[in-house]
């Protein structure tokens, strides 16, 4: 693969003579030319969400609600994955990085950026921009104009490819604009194979999702029962649930064993009672027979006495 582009973001330059009185434009339109130093100092954190493309301000377009919901679901899926794997960090929306490209310099703010823990440039807690090159960028496509579609599908595609971003995802509510790229050994983007309707990340082991789920957006509860997501969605909760199920099963088995023991005890007591009754009856019969025999002997003795 070609070398990844890394560059420290430049600090705003000291004002030149005659520039001290120059004030930044409050709300400059897209296409306004500004220096990179002025961009970092005055427009990087501007509420309009400006990006900077080789000296020109560009305004990030707004996606429609359906595409925004897809973005939110995918972001949630990344978070669920990282909750169990802890091998990367995420940035969202207004967090930018500098691309030092062969033919220009650009500053882009992907809708979602991911930095692996193995990236040579860590993402620090107090960073306000990323000093390295993201390992994965996601853009939520706006289709308000052909130029906006072209920016994400062609311009940023080429920029991220040249900068060395290993994976680039474009999401949209229309499946035609759901595009997923991975850099190959030659440093060029190629579509990620859609095996059995799944997109699998090469940089995040085990991370995957169904393309149709971008629209369906199943809940975490539903994904817990889905073999595609179960391996990385809330594994601690799944282990706790399994432990609870095993404890409940053991409790039920103990209750069942207790009931069986009680039934055996009841049966044994019933049999013992029956045996005692039978023995009492036997003793009573023997006592009756003895009494009858004694009475018979008395009667015989009386009869003998009369005969004498």
From TrEMBL:
Residues covered by region (Disordered): 1-32, 259-291
SUPFAM superfamilies per record: Restriction endonuclease-like
A Pfam match: Uma2
Regions of compositional bias (Basic and acidic residues) in chain numbering: 1-11, 270-291
Residue spans of biased composition, Low complexity class: 259-269
Location of the Putative restriction endonuclease domain: 42-210
Protein name as catalogued: Putative restriction endonuclease domain-containing protein
């Amino acid at each position: 693969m070609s070398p990844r582009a890394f560059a420290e973001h430049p600090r705003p330059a000291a004002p030149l003579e005659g520039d001290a009185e120059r004030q930044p434009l409050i709300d400059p339109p897209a296409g306004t030319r500004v220096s990179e130093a002025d961009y970092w100092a005055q427009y990087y954190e501007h509420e309009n969400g400006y990006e900077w493309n080789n000296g020109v301000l560009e305004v990030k377009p707004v996606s429609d609600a359906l595409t925004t919901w897809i973005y939110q679901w995918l972001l949630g899926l990344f978070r669920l994955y990282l909750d169990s794997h802890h091998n990367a960090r995420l940035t969202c929306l207004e967090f930018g990085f500098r691309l030092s490209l062969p033919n220009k310099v650009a500053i882009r703010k992907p809708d979602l950026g991911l930095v692996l823990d193995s990236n040579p440039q860590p993402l620090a807690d107090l960073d306000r921009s990323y000093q390295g090159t993201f390992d994965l960028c996601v853009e939520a496509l706006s289709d308000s104009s052909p130029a906006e579609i072209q920016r994400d599908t062609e311009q940023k595609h080429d920029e991220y490819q040249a900068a060395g971003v290993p994976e680039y995802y474009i999401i949209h509510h229309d499946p035609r604009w759901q595009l997923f790229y991975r850099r190959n050994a030659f440093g060029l983007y190629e579509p990620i194979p859609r095996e059995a309707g799944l997109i699998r990340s090469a940089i995040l082991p085990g991370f995957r999702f169904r393309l149709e789920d971008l629209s369906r957006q199943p809940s975490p509860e539903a994904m817990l029962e889905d073999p595609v997501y179960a391996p990385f969605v809330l594994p601690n909760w799944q282990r706790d649930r399994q432990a609870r199920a095993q404890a409940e099963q053991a409790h039920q088995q103990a209750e069942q064993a207790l009931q069986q023991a009680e039934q055996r005890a009841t049966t044994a007591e019933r049999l013992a009672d029956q045996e005692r009754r039978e023995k009492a009856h036997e003793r009573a019969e023997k006592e009756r027979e003895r009494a009858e025999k004694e009475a018979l002997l008395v009667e015989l003795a009386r009869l003998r006495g009369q005969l004498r």
